[in-house]
Structure formats: C-alpha cells, structure tokens
C-alpha cells in the first residue's frame, strides 16, 4: 500500500510540477518569477528531506512538524491541489495555521491556553491509580524540554495543541500521528523527486547531523512553581512559555543544523520571530483595554518600533507563501544575490546577511526578555 500510495502521488505531483514549468513560457518577467518560485520550493524540499533522512530524536520529530506542514500546505496551495489524503489533510492545514495562532487577539489565545491546560490536567489526573488521590493535586500535567545549557525548547501542552491530540493516553493517538507522519514524508519525497527530474538539486549545507534534546522538567500548572517568576497568572506563564519554546527551538535546535545561507531556515526564523512579535503586540493591546490583566511590557514596547520595519507585508507574504509572481519582489539586477535578491528589492538595497543579522539581534532580544519571566537558575533538569 505504501509503495502504491507513493507512486500515485509522485505521478500526480510530478505532473503538476511539469505543468508549472510549462506555464513559465509566457511573459518574460512572470516566467522568471515562476521559475524562482519553483526553485525556492525545490530548495525547501531538499532541506526538509535532509532532516527527515538524518534526524531521529523524538522530541525534535514532533517540534519540527509545524514547519513541515507550512511547506506542504503552501505547496498544495500554489499547485492548486490537495495531495495529502483523509483526515491528515485537515490536520496539515490546522498545524500550519498554529504557527500564527498567537498572532490573533490575546483574548482568543487566553481561551485556547486555558482549554488545553484543563484537558491535559484532566488526562494526567485520570492516570492516578486511586480515585481518592485525584483531589490531592499531586499529579504532573506539563512536561518541558530543555537544552543542556538550560534553554527551554518545547512543552507537552503546546505539542498536544498543535498536533490536535485529544487524548494523549488513547492507543489510537499513536496510529493517527504515524499516518500523518507517513503522508508528510511521502509528500516531501515526491516533491523532491519531481523537482530533481527537471532541475538539478541544490546543495544543502549541513553543519550538524543527529540533534538530541536530552533534558526535561515536569510540573503541575495548578501549583505555584519555582520555574515562574510571577505565579499570579497561569495563562500568562503558559503563553510566555509557548513563545519562548518556539523561539528557542529555532535558535538552539534548528538553526545550528544548517549553514546561514539556507533559505528555508531563514524563512522559518523570520516567520517565528514575526508571530512572536505580533503575539506580544496583541497582549499589549489586551492589557491596554482590559482590567483583568496588568503586566509591565516596557522592554517589549521599546523594541516595537524597530521591529516594525522588518515586517513589511510584501516581504512577509513571500516568506509565508509560495507564488512571488507579480508581487514586485524580484528585480533583474539583484537576482543572483542570496534569496534571489528579494531582501535587497524589498529593503532598499540592504543585503541578505545584514538583514539576517538584524533579524537575529531582534530575536535574541525577544528571547532575553521572555526568559526573564522564568527562574531558570532555580530548577533542576532531569535527563530523558
């Protein structure tokens, strides 16, 4: 069945790729823009396939899924056809959308975090052997994952949320996630093969292979925990935890695996930084207009003006989606520069590496501010 599924989808995907290539013979500039779109998709496919071949760490395998889903859903939208089958198709779309979920109003984020926490709490509480113990509040309902040098890079509530896991202890959950992973892997392999038949594949420059996320810290979110500087708002603590997990995963886990010239990692880094910035903005708006939450966001507020310049909509759209045709982001004089000169065209000649440096300085500043919400020095990590 697997080989039949893969063959059918490769045939369909390859046909669509050839069709895109044929459509590139029309207008000269549009032809160029379409070919660049195809090339960007190919470069992303090669980078993702490289990870799928080499990385076996189970935490990494879960944490990276939203960025695989972003690639798959964006490809499907560009081609105009859905290749992922069954319930996995909707899951891919939902997981992709999770990347920007905290960019919505903080009121929506607050409700989402509360619901996930309640569901996870009930599931872990139910695992206690005796009913009379369930009222003691002695269970642990949140696991956090860390690097050896104490940077939190993931947590179980966020994973359950974006993977759409209703019951972590249901035996069917593993089968559903396996099927999702199988189809995502088959899609990436098919896209990679389809492109390579028409275009020479680019070199993927890897700096490291075999990432390992080895440390954890478990807690009960119903109790005041020493991890948090301020225990007055559980929702805020979980909100900041999710944001810093996303940022740190990219900085400390994904980014070190590739050379700085990798366009896919650059796009992921940009998108995660943007939606963290947007989430903090939404939190500030909520605090300004509601009396139930009051928090000092001074450090974040100071960086908003400088951050705004990095996130212009034209550039952001071509980072989140494929299809740069008629977007005004390609110019002939810049086309041989990194990322096809899109940075130079959108940012008045600023070169790719200068832009990347500015983005990373902003990212580091945001991470520093987020990590100050946690008493990292007070906890003791355990080895997985």
Please give a structural write-up:
- This protein is mainly α.
- It has one domain (2-383).
- It has helices at residues 2-23, 28-54, 58-63, 65-79, 87-98, 106-125, 156-163, 171-198, 234-254, 263-289, 298-308, 313-320, 342-346, 352-371, and strands spanning 142-146, 152-155, 215-219, 382-383.
- A hairpin with a 5-residue loop joins strand 1 (142-146) and strand 2 (152-155).
- It starts with a helix and ends with a strand.
The gist of it:
The chain is mainly α.
Q: In total, how many domains does the architecture comprise?
A: 1
Low-pLDDT windows of residues: 1-10
Give the overall silhouette. globular
Major sheet: order of its strands? 2-1-3-4
Q: How many β-strands, per DSSP?
A: 4
H/E order of the elements?
HHHHHHEEHHEHHHHHHE
Tell me the structural class.
Answer: mainly alpha
Strand content: under 5%
Q: Approximately how much helix is present in the residues?
A: 55-70%
The oligomeric state is: single chain
List the main descriptive attributes of the protein structure presented here.
4-stranded antiparallel β-sheet; single chain; 4 strands; 384 residues; mainly alpha; disordered N terminus; 60% helix
SSE layout and pairing:
Elements: H1 2-23, H2 28-54, H3 58-63, H4 65-79, H5 87-98, H6 106-125, E1 142-146, E2 152-155, H7 156-163, H8 171-198, E3 215-219, H9 234-254, H10 263-289, H11 298-308, H12 313-320, H13 342-346, H14 352-371, E4 382-383
Antiparallel strand pairs: 1-2, 1-3, 3-4
